[in-house]
């Protein structure tokens, strides 16, 4: 009997890249080991997250299942939500779609075309037990946590925010002055984070302009992380470091964050891209490209 071949899309939001499967008509079942092999950038397709689009159980446009490149399942991914939102809007000729996730219902809408998509990420969770943390902290704007010598720590007193997944934000003067590939894994798995955490270094370099570098839980260093951008924007505004509208400058590019005053929801706006189409032999995990992706945007088209 011939092995099964499944088509996929390779997409990214500001370089935060995904393999996307449509499993609405035919379920897709991959083991954690299979996902990790496909996610390997040297021997597999390579991605930060694997996204499976499934039928919604509550009647909205689709359910989005998210796995990190290590094969573990997570509840939220802002850039992936923007990418899936774009696909569903194009498919259904709509300018607003609702996506069911394990973190709740998220709304994506067209942000003036040109592959720009806005996602309403809902309200941030700010209490210590919502992050969650292993012990109680009255003020999550700066918790007692440090790495390095007690009298001269490398990093210390991060803000913590949950945007569907836990984030710790360290305010620094230069995001490139730290070896995040070395300290990121230590902080991700610190005992204060029972579910692990995404680790961000953030530097405010101008009014409402923040440069950010992210170690993503279960994925490692990434060009962009949407929920981290949201968490940084919230943490900055909450501590009066910025206003409620910020531009987060990630290695993959800028992303707009607005923490609305009225309903407390966080809106995230940025570019999406289809890199290519492909197909995978599910038994052997061999894969090939079958078609190209988006045409390059003209200079200035993202503005």
Automatic annotation (TrEMBL):
Catalytic activity, as annotated: (2S,6S)-2,6-diaminopimelate = meso-2,6-diaminopimelate
Localization annotation: Cytoplasm
UniProt site positions, description: Could be important to modulate the pK values of the two catalytic cysteine residues: 167, 216
Gene Ontology process terms (BP): lysine biosynthetic process via diaminopimelate
Gene Ontology annotations for the cellular component aspect, listed alphabetically: cytosol
SUPFAM superfamilies: Diaminopimelate epimerase-like
Active site residues per record: 77, 225
E.C. numbers: 5.1.1.7
Family to which this protein belongs: Belongs to the diaminopimelate epimerase family.
PANTHER family assigned to the protein according to its UniProt record, in alphabetical order: DIAMINOPIMELATE EPIMERASE, DIAMINOPIMELATE EPIMERASE, CHLOROPLASTIC
Function as written in the Swiss-Prot or TrEMBL entry: Catalyzes the stereoinversion of LL-2,6-diaminopimelate (L,L-DAP) to meso-diaminopimelate (meso-DAP), a precursor of L-lysine and an essential component of the bacterial peptidoglycan.
Name listed for the protein in its UniProt record: Diaminopimelate epimerase
Source organism per UniProt: Roseibium alexandrii (strain DSM 17067 / NCIMB 14079 / DFL-11) (Labrenzia alexandrii)
């Amino acid at each position: 009997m011939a092995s099964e071949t499944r088509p996929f899309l390779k997409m990214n939001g500001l370089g935060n890249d995904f393999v996307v499967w449509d499993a609405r008509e035919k379920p897709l079942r991959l083991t954690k080991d299979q996902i990790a092999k496909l996610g390997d950038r040297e021997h597999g397709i390579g991605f930060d997250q694997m996204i499976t689009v499934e039928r919604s159980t509550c009647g909205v446009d689709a359910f989005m299942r998210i796995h990190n490149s290590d094969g573990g399942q997570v509840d939220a991914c802002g850039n992936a939500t923007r990418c899936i939102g774009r696909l569903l809007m194009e498919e259904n000729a709509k300018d607003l779609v609702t996506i069911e996730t394990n973190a709740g219902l998220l709304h994506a809408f067209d942000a003036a075309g040109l592959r720009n998509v806005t996602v309403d990420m809902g309200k941030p969770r700010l209490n210590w037990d919502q992050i969650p943390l292993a012990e109680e902290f009255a003020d999550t704007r700066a918790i007692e946590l440090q790495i390095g010598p007690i009298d001269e720590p490398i990093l210390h007193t991060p803000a913590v925010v949950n945007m569907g997944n836990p984030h710790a934000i360290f305010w620094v003067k230069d995001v490139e002055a730290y070896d995040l590939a070395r300290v990121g894994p230590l902080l991700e798995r610190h005992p204060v984070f029972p579910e692990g955490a995404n680790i961000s270094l953030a530097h405010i370099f101008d009014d409402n302009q923040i440069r950010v570098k992210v170690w993503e839980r279960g994925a490692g260093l990434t060009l962009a992380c949407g929920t981290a951008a949201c968490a940084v924007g919230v943490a900055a505004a909450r501590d009066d470091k910025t206003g409620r509208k910020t531009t987060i400058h990630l290695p993959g590019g800028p992303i707009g964050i607005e923490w609305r005053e009225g309903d407390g929801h966080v809106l995230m706006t940025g570019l999406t891209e289809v890199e290519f189409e492909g197909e995978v032999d599910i038994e052997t995990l061999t894969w090939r490209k079958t078609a190209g992706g988006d045409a390059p945007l003209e200079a200035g088209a993202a503005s």
